[in-house]
UniProtKB/TrEMBL annotation, chain A:
It holds the Pfam family oligo_HPY. It is a peripheral membrane protein. PANTHER family: DIPEPTIDE TRANSPORT ATP-BINDING PROTEIN DPPD, OLIGOPEPTIDE TRANSPORT ATP-BINDING PROTEIN APPD. It comes from the Bacteria. Its main location: membrane. The keyword Cell division does not apply. It is found in: Cell membrane. This is ABC transporter ATP-binding protein. Keywords: ATP-binding, Cell membrane, Membrane, Nucleotide-binding, Transport.
Automatic annotation (TrEMBL), chain B:
This is Peptide ABC transporter permease. Residues 66-255 form the ABC transmembrane type-1 domain. The keyword Transmembrane helix applies. PROSITE patterns: ABC_TM1. It comes from Winogradskya humida. It is found in: Cell membrane. Belongs to the binding-protein-dependent transport system permease family. CDD domains: TM_PBP2.
Length: 263, 267
């Protein structure tokens, strides 16, 4: 499905921001990419969809099915986006156009990939909103992003990403900007949707407990390199790399603090 | 002053001028070339504002000058807006070296005083209202282009553009439905401000004899012609001056009110 092979991303000065990163995600798989900010996880996500910001160059290879996302024709990549791969971003306020009603934003990819128009398009938009558990779909579809809550906005973004049934969903810190309670709801929602549609998931986060909840095989990224790769359960139980150990330990300390107040 | 008040006062001032201009197309107190009132008649009687040194009715001249002022504002904003938006969009989307080149050219154009640029163009082609509008519009286009370039770059960096591209939306469609609506508020504020500056620029050009040629009355030329008799018949100078100030302040306050409204919506 997705293969990333010795991906290296350099800036204009030639400094490597991501170095020699390799991993793969099979159909229906759930991979985790965990690391602190600046570790290169978001750049890796952008390289996967073939939309690195100008000034950054990627070497190595990223393949989505048969299509290279860093070499070859842009036209071929355009064909893959939306249909094969879709994304959910960290900040739902900037991920949605502030001047476009939510419904129209969801309609964009549907119109393009499923060639629906008129009432059929409207129904598809409502179905997509329904799927992310938004009630009162009429009102939501007409609302501008600032009229929606953070959780609702992220649901709309997820609806937009999943509307065309991509085979791979790249979720870049989709819950980081949300309240803890809303976080849990969104994670459950992603979990369920990815399961029902058999969508593969590349889940990017800095938050180990969040990764533990949705990801299976997880790669720990630090300063642009993968320092450890293992199923999440093994990572938690037997962290091999010192950095992973620090991550696990600090997560456990939070847990311990909660436990102390319980007793 | 509250932002609403800015906008309302500004719009009222602009609408007063616009209304007077509309009326002038339906009704004028005298024919523009009617000199039956005698030279430099004082205000009052048939001639509400008196007559100028050729005996033409001042109110009539003032109304016709209003047509030219508003026409210049609309024309220059149209020229500057269309050219500036086009050039700014191109630069905003261009590759790095092309964009750098565009930025330098725009900075040089902007460093050049608008009036001087307009005078050069008018000197080359001869004074007429059309060339004055074109010249002012071109100078404005450089300012608008630089603004649009920066705005486009800002919007292109937003996640919703990436989201739209991931969703396979084509570039023309992204520009039409995401980029243009998102740069429109700031662009509109700037154009309103530029409209006021265009009115002033046209008046300055006409004052210098480089704008509207006689016999058409422009407020700038009325000011110039009233200069010699300002002590004996001050109304001939005060009336166009006041009209000019009303329109320009109106446009500036409108821009101000819009700007405050826009930054409010951003929050």
């Amino acid at each position: 499905m997705l293969t990333v092979d010795r991906l290296t991303i350099r800036n204009r000065a030639g400094r490597a921001l991501v170095e020699d990163v390799s991993f793969s995600v099979g159909p229906g798989d759930r991979a985790g990419l965990i690391g602190e900010s600046g570790s290169g996880k978001s750049l890796t996500a952008l390289a996967v969809i073939g939309l690195l910001p100008p000034g950054l160059t990627a070497t190595g290879e990223v393949r989505l099915g048969d299509t290279s996302m860093i070499k070859g024709q842009e036209k071929l990549r355009t064909r893959v986006r939306g249909k094969v791969v879709a994304t959910v971003f960290q900040e739902p306020l900037t991920a949605l156009d502030p001047l476009m009603p939510a419904g129209r934003q969801i309609a964009e990819p549907i119109r393009r990939f499923r060639s629906l128009r008129g009432t059929a398009l409207r129904d598809a938009v409502h179905a997509a909103l329904d799927e992310v558990r938004l009630t009162d779909t009429d009102r939501i579809a007409r609302s501008y992003p600032h009229e929606l809550s953070g959780g609702q906005r992220q649901r709309v973004a997820i609806a937009m990403a999943l509307a065309c049934r991509p085979q791979l969903l790249v979720a870049d810190e989709p819950t980081t900007a949300l309240d803890v309670t809303v976080q849990a709801e969104i994670l459950d929602l992603l979990d369920r949707l990815v399961d029902t549609h058999g969508t593969a998931l590349l889940f990017i986060t800095h938050d180990l407990p969040v990764a533990a909840r949705v990801a299976r095989h997880t790669h720990v990224l630090r300063e642009g390199r993968i320092v450890e790769s293992a199923p999440i359960a093994d990572l938690l139980a037997r962290p091999a790399h010192p950095y992973t150990r620090t991550l696990v330990d600090s997560a456990r300390r939070f847990d311990a603090a909660l436990g102390r107040h319980l007793s | 002053m509250s932002k609403r008040l800015h906008l309302y006062i500004g719009l009222v001032l602009v609408l007063i001028v616009a209304g007077a201009v509309l009326v002038s197309y339906l009704w004028l107190p005298f024919a523009p070339d009617d000199t039956s009132g005698g030279r430099l008649a004082p205000p009052g009687g048939d001639h509400l504002l008196g007559t100028d040194k050729l005996g033409r009715d001042l109110l009539t001249q003032l109304l016709i000058g209003g047509r030219i002022a508003l026409g210049t504002a609309l024309g220059a904003v149209a020229v500057g807006g269309v050219l500036g938006l086009g050039a700014g969009l191109l630069a905003g989307f261009a590759t790095r070296w092309l964009d750098d080149a565009a930025a330098v050219v725009l900075d040089i154009l902007i460093a050049f005083p608008t009036l001087l640029l307009a005078m050069l163009i008018v000197a080359g082609t001869g004074a007429s209202l059309g060339t004055a509008i074109l010249a002012i519009g071109l100078a404005m286009a450089a300012i608008v282009a630089r603004l649009v370039r920066v705005l486009v770059k800002q919007v292109l960096g937003r996640d919703y553009i990436t989201a739209a591209r991931v969703a396979g939306v084509s570039w023309p469609r992204i520009v039409l439905s995401h980029v243009l609506p998102n740069i429109a508020p700031v662009l509109l504020v700037n154009l309103a401000l530029q409209a006021g500056l265009a009115v002033l620029a046209e008046a300055s050009l006409s004052y210098l004899g480089l704008g509207t040629p006689p016999p058409n009355a422009s407020w700038g030329r009325m000011l110039f012609e009233a200069q010699a008799t300002v002590l004996t018949s001050p109304v001939a100078a005060i009336a166009p001056g006041l009209a000019l100030v009303t329109l320009v302040i109106g446009m500036n306050l409108t821009a101000d009110g819009l700007r405050l409204g826009v930054s409010d919506a951003d929050r």
